[in-house]
Structure formats: C-alpha cells, structure tokens
Amino acid sequence: EVQLVQSGAEVKRPGESLRISCKGSQYSFTTYWITWVRQMPGKGLEWMGRIDPSDSDTNYSPSCQGHVTISADKSITTAYLQWSRLKASDTAIYYCARHGRDNHGYFHGMDVWGQGTTVTVSS
Amino acid sequence: DIVMTQSPDSLTVSLGERATINCKSSQSVLYSSNNRNYLGWYQQQAGQPPKLLIYWASTRESGVPDRFSGSGSGTDFTLTISSLQAEDVAVYYCQQYYSPPFTFGPGTRVDIK
Fold first, then answer.
1. φ and ψ at B57, to 5 degrees?
2. DSSP state at residue B105
C-alpha cells in the first residue's frame, strides 16, 4: 500500500526549533512531488509549499517563505518541514501529501495524505 | 496568487437529495497546451486528513463513489453530490494546482437535514 507516515505530535516553546518528517513507502519517491498543508485549529486548509524530491526544487507560499524550510532526503524517502524559531501561531496540524500523476505524467491533485502531525507551541 | 472562493459556506441537505457546491478562481486555471483545468476537490471528514475526490475538474479519483461529480472550466467549477449519504457529512475544499501557491478555497460544510 502506498503510504505517507508522519512523525508524532510535538509540544514546543516559542523560539525553539523543530523538524517534522514524512516518510513515503511503496512507490517511487522521486517521481512525485510532496506538498505540506497547514490546518490551524478549527480552520481550513492552507498550502505551505511543495518539493520535488528528485532535485529538491521547492515552491513556498508567500506567507510561509522565510519562516519554514521544506527539504527531502531521497535516500531514505523522507520529506521534512522545519522551523528555526517557532511562534505560538504555528500551532496547527501539518499534513504532507503526494501529488498524483496521470497516465500522461501530468501532476494533479494530492492523492495520498499522511495522517497529520499536531504541533503545539506554547509558553 | 490565485484566490479561490466557494459558495455556500455551508449547506444542509436531506438524505438522498442533491448537494451542489460552487468554486470560483480569480483567474483561469485552464492550461491551454493540454486543455486541462488544474482544479481538484477534496473531502475532509471530522478528525481525518483530506481525501482527493476529483482532479482535472471532472475526473473522479479511483474508488470515489459515482454520486460525486465535478464540472466547470476556466474560472467556475461545481462539485455535485447526486444523492447525499450519511457518510458524506464533511467539509469540501476546492484547490487550484495551476500555479504555486496552490491555493485552497475556504471550504463548504455539508450536513444532513
């Protein structure tokens, strides 16, 4: 079964650093983009950014640019989302998701999702 | 950035009745070179990750019941649930993947009347 398995819940203080992970299995990891999506408590979905694991090419949402870093280690089929200085407003559930590809190779919507990682930032 | 809007914010529908959700993008998401609309629909049930229902605006993802259908082109799109079932209670989001940032709509909550 194609899967994305995310790391466990985190509780952090403002100003601390954090890296969460998303491990892909049972598919060719470098063939599909990985996207990160934020969901703040009781709110909708926010696209944060995406990475092409084959060459680490990335795009970020303007609201996230400079505050988070998306990376990937294709040798262990794992993508990462990291912060150098957390804020209380980073409290949210973070999902990783794989962009599907159709028979012609075009990337489309996110067809496989991780279970989500809850990040709580509080003093 | 492409801004996605949805209407209504919420709707309540009787079991077996039709539910219709609208989505509008601030610019066209139709890619002329391949004639595809870069628009997807997702369902998020309470406490669960989102699930892809529709991509290319009208292609149903494998395993999705055929009561779910998508239509539209350019800037205006619709998700229709032809006969609402109890398990369809959820929030539904549209998303454009035409150009980054791949923005989502604000969501439409669907409940049973």
1. 70, -25
2. P
Q: Which residues of B touch A107 (CB under 8 A)?
A: 97
Count CB pairs under 8 A between chains A and B. 76
**What would the DSSP string read from start to end of A56-73?**
TEEEE-TTTBTTEEEEEE
List, in order, residues 6 or more apart from B100 with CB less than 8 Å away.
Answer: A49, A50, A59, A60, A61
CA distance B102 to B2: 8
Q: pLDDT per residue over A6-30, tens digit each?
A: 999 999 999 999 999 999 999 999 9
- Which H or E run contains B25? strand B19-25
pLDDT class for A64, splitting at 50, 70, 90?
Answer: very high
Q: Does A1 touch chain B (CB under 8 A)?
A: no
Judged by CB atoms closer than 8 Å, whether chains meet at A45 and B52 is answered as no
